[in-house]
Design goal:
The protein has about 140 residues and is of the alpha/beta class. The chain has helices at about 5, 20-30, 50-55, 70-75, 85-95, 115-120, 125-135; strands at about 10, 15, 35-40, 45-50, 80, 100-105, 110-115. The strands form two sheets. It has a four-stranded mixed β-sheet. A three-stranded mixed β-sheet has the order 2-3-4. Helix 5 (about 85-95) packs parallel to helix 7.
């Protein structure tokens, strides 16, 4: 059985909710990542911040990234997966919520992230195609 822990990228780091977006961008550059899980004061997941969030939700709106915090952009219920979860559970969670990055938690601590690249490296082509179609599918206009 392949688990989330088997395919995740290890060494993921939190960005505290109180940290500014300019600091988040610096950390993303340092870690060479496009997303950071956001933690509250108790190191519990409260969102995910992407490089796109910083550009679209702050810079393009004319806001100063040194004055806007990661927590200001945290919206919705964050999704995560346990490190011991089977790969089928990982795929289902990402499909169901149409997300491309998934924090991996073990004993209430962040232990890694699963991204599109991790999926592509560890799955056969037919599973990748099915996953990609589900994650990238547009929802019907309402």
């Amino acid at each position: 059985m392949t688990t989330a822990g088997d395919i995740m990228h290890r060494g993921a780091q939190w960005i505290p909710a109180h940290e500014t977006l300019d600091r988040a961008a610096q950390l993303m550059r340092q870690l060479n990542v496009g997303a950071l899980p956001i933690s509250d004061e108790n190191e519990r997941l409260c969102g995910i911040l992407t490089d796109r969030d910083i550009v679209v939700g702050c810079v393009a709106m004319g806001h100063d990234p040194s004055r806007v915090t990661a927590g200001d952009l945290a919206k919705g219920t964050p999704r995560w997966i346990d490190a011991d979860a089977d790969i089928s559970e990982v795929l289902e969670e990402m499909k169901e919520h149409q997300i491309r990055r998934l924090p991996v938690i073990h004993n209430k601590r962040l232990v890694g992230m699963i991204s599109e690249a991790d999926i592509a490296r560890h799955l056969p082509e037919d599973q990748i195609a099915d996953w990609a179609e589900s994650v990238y599918a547009r929802t019907p206009a309402r």
